[in-house]
Amino acid sequence: MAAYNAQDYLDTALKSVFAQSFEDFEVVVVDDASSDNTPQILAACKDPRLKVFRNETRRGAAFSRNRAIAEALDRRYVAILDADDFWAPEKLERQVRFMEKHPYAAGLGTYVYETDQNGRRNKAVRFPLYPGQIRCSTLFRCSLVHSSVMIRRSFLVENSIRYNESFSFSHDYELWSRAVFAGNFHLLPCYLTYYRRRPGQISSSNASAQNKHALQVYCNMLKKMGFQPKDEELSAHIRLTGMASGTVNEQEHYRDILLWCIALYKKNEKNPVFRPYLLANEILLRFLKYCTMNSLGLLKTLRLMVSLHWNLSSLFFPYFQLFQRMSRKINDV
């Protein structure tokens, strides 16, 4: 855990760890030079499994997380928890059981409950479950919620995988964009992680900088496929992902996105980075979401989807996955 001015949520996060049914762990927290009561909250915790380190000056979340992982030298697995998130009591136990049963798994995430700032659930969020699906989905979105992931330490060491400290934001997405190509990541279809959305968190208060770093991740992955992405190609890609929703009148430009989808598939045929049928499935689902988000209408969407199917040259039908991935709203009282 990296913690910076986390006094409002840190106690809940720590309690969720110490309440785990799996007890053979240590908690490594790096306090990134907090100026609030974070140090006092950590000092008040007397559980011997807690190890606290403090940066003398603020170094950023990526540096602090790298330091935390480096300090946990003798553990088989690394589980990540952001200081404002928390876990279900059986989270570690179920993940360790899976990782022990699947020795070739590099990492394992979970389904997630999004909560408000008070920890009340408001959304149940699902993601792809299997390594190939997760790999393809990562081309369009971050499909591993940071606080949900457990990683095999040997995988991190053997592949020299660390957070990129030049990324002030989206450093988790940047890490996953490399890690999922170096090993097999899975997802437990269980809601074991609580992701808190709150005023002032990174993803809301620094949207412009975060989008800039996310764009760099997209650019790097497209280069991996063999593109030297031009501005118009990057623009099409971020519109397809939904990151730039509302910036362009898609009623006039949707054909550009259709052509970009076909270009992605054709490029992967020549330079296979993804399994073709898995990438085709992901493209179809992503384009369907694009059409829906931009209110292109039922008949136009059907025509566009038929055209996309035709241009992918094989028969793909991924739509049953919509039920597997469909998020739903919750109203906790």
What does this structure look like?
The chain is built from 14 helices and 10 strands. The protein folds into 2 domains: 204 residues, Spore Coat Polysaccharide Biosynthesis Protein SpsA, Chain A (Alpha-Beta Complex); 99 residues, no CATH class. The longest helix is centred in the last third of the chain and has 21 residues. A hairpin with a 5-residue loop joins β6 and β7. The strands form 2 sheets. Strands 4, 5, 6, 7, 8, 9 and 10 form a 7-stranded mixed β-sheet that branches. The chain has a 3-stranded parallel β-sheet with strand order 1-2-3. It has 333 residues and is α/β, with parallel strands linked by helices. The mean pLDDT is 91.
**Principal-axes shape call:** globular
If helices are DSSP runs of H or I spanning 4 or more residues, what is the number of helices? 14
Assigned CATH class of the largest domain:
Alpha Beta
Q: pLDDT under 50 segments (min length 5)?
A: none
Assess the beta-strand content as a share of residues. 15-25%
DSSP E strands, number: 10
Mean pLDDT: 91
Question: What about the largest sheet?
Answer: 7 strands, mixed
Structural class: alpha/beta
Tell me the name of the CATH homologous superfamily of the largest domain.
Spore Coat Polysaccharide Biosynthesis Protein SpsA, Chain A
In quaternary terms, these chains amount to single chain
The residue fraction in helices comes out at 40-55%
Terminal CA distance reads 29 Å
Q: Evaluate the radius of gyration.
A: 21 Å
Q: Encode the helix/strand succession as letters.
A: EHEHEHEEHEEHEHHEHHHHHHHE
